[in-house]
Amino acid sequence: QAKLHTRGDVSRYTARMGDAASAELATELELRAALEDQRVQIFLQPRLDLVDGVCRGAEALMRIRRADGSLILPGDFIAVAERCGLMPRLGAVVLEQSCQALSTLRRSSLGEDFRLSVNLSPLELHDEALASRVEAALCRHGLPASALELELTETALVDDPLAAERRLSELRALGVAIALDDFGAGFSGLSHLLRFPISVLKIDRSFIERLRSDRIADALVEGLVGMAQRLGLRVVAEGIERHALITALQAMDCDEAQGYAIAKPMPLESLVGWLDSAREPQLTA
Ligand code: C2E
Ligand code: MG
Ligand code: MG
Ligand code: MG
To answer: What's 63's DSSP letter?
Structure first.
C-alpha cells in the first residue's frame, strides 16, 4: 500500500516538473525500493598481481538490480544517491556485503589472503563514525583489517582536508589500507600524498588507455609508477582493455592491474569459479 501512494505522488509531480527532475525522482524512488527489497548488490572485479599473475584481490562495485532483473550502473545512480542523502545507506550495504564476501572467499581453499577494496563517497568519509562502523563490520565477519582497502577520490580529500585527515588516520590506525582512486584524473595535488596516509595509487584509466599509442602517456605512467615505488606505495593500473598492456605494465614494474582484458566485474558466485580456473598464472609472457 505504501508503494501505491508513492506511485500516485510520482504522476502528480511529473506532470509539473521538468524531465530531468522527474528522472531524478524516479531514480530516487528506485533506490529506496531497492534498499527496501534488498536489490543492492556488489559485483567484484579481479585485481591481478603483475609479479606472478595471481589474483589476490578484487574491487567491490555497486549495482542496483531492478525488479525485472536488469542492472543499474553507478554512473546512473551515484550522483542522485548523494544528492538525496541515500549514499550512506547504500554504502553501508556495500560494506556489509563486501565483508560477507571476504569471509566466504577467505574460507574457501582459494583465497586465505584475499583482499577487497571498497569505494567510499566523500560523504561517507566525513561520517565521524566511519572507522568504528568499519571496525564493527570487520569484527562481525571475523576479518583482520588488512583484508580491506578503502578507495577514495581526491575530491573527497579537498573539501574538508582536516576532517579527511582525521578519518583517514583512524582507518590507518585500524589497519585498513587507503587507496587514492582515479589518480591523475582530477586536480591532482601531489601534495595529497604528503598529507594523507595513502598506501595505494590507482592510476586513472584515461592514462592507461593511451599506453603504447601515446608517448606522453607512456612517460607519465612510467613516471607515476617510479614515484609511487620511491614513496613505498603500491600502484594499480585501472581500465586495462588490451592484453598487450599487461606486459607493458609489467615492464614498467607496476604492481597490479585491473580491467576488462583480465575480467569484468561479476557476482561473487562467478568470481569463485573464475578464481578456480585462474589458479594457473594468467600471464603468458
Ligand atoms: P571506480 O572506482 O574508478 O571503478 C572502476 C570503474 O571502471 C567501474 O565502473 C568498472 O566497472 C570500470 N572498469 C573496469 N575495468 C574497465 C575497463 O577495462 N574499461 C572500462 N571502460 N571500464 C572499466 P562502475 O562499476 O560503473 O563504477 C563507476 C564508478 O562508480 C566507480 O569508479 C566508483 O567511483 C563509483 N562506485 C562504484 N561502486 C561504488 C560504491 O560501492 N560506493 C561508491 N561510493 N562509489 C562506487
Ligand atoms: Mg574504485
Ligand atoms: Mg577508479
Ligand atoms: Mg572512476
So the answer is: E
- What would the pLDDT profile of 140-172 be if each residue is shown by its tens digit? 999 999 999 999 999 899 888 999 999 999 999
* Cβ(124)–Cβ(130) below 8 Å: yes
**Of 41, 59, 61, which is best to mutate to test ligand 1, by the most ligand atoms within 8 angstroms of its C-beta?**
61
Does the beta carbon of 236 sit less than 6 angstroms from any atom of ligand 1? no
pTM confidence score:
0.92
Number of helices (H) and strands (E) in the chain: give both, helices first: 13, 9
Report which protein residue has its CA nearest ligand 1's atom 3.
182
Q: What is the mean pLDDT of the chain?
A: 91
Are 40 and 64 a contacting pair, CB within 8 Å? yes
Radius of gyration of the chain (CA): 20
Say if strands 40-49 and 55-65 run parallel, antiparallel, or are unpaired: antiparallel
Burial classification of residue 147, based on how many CB atoms lie within 10 Å of its CB (0-12 exposed, 13-18 middle, 19 or more buried)? buried
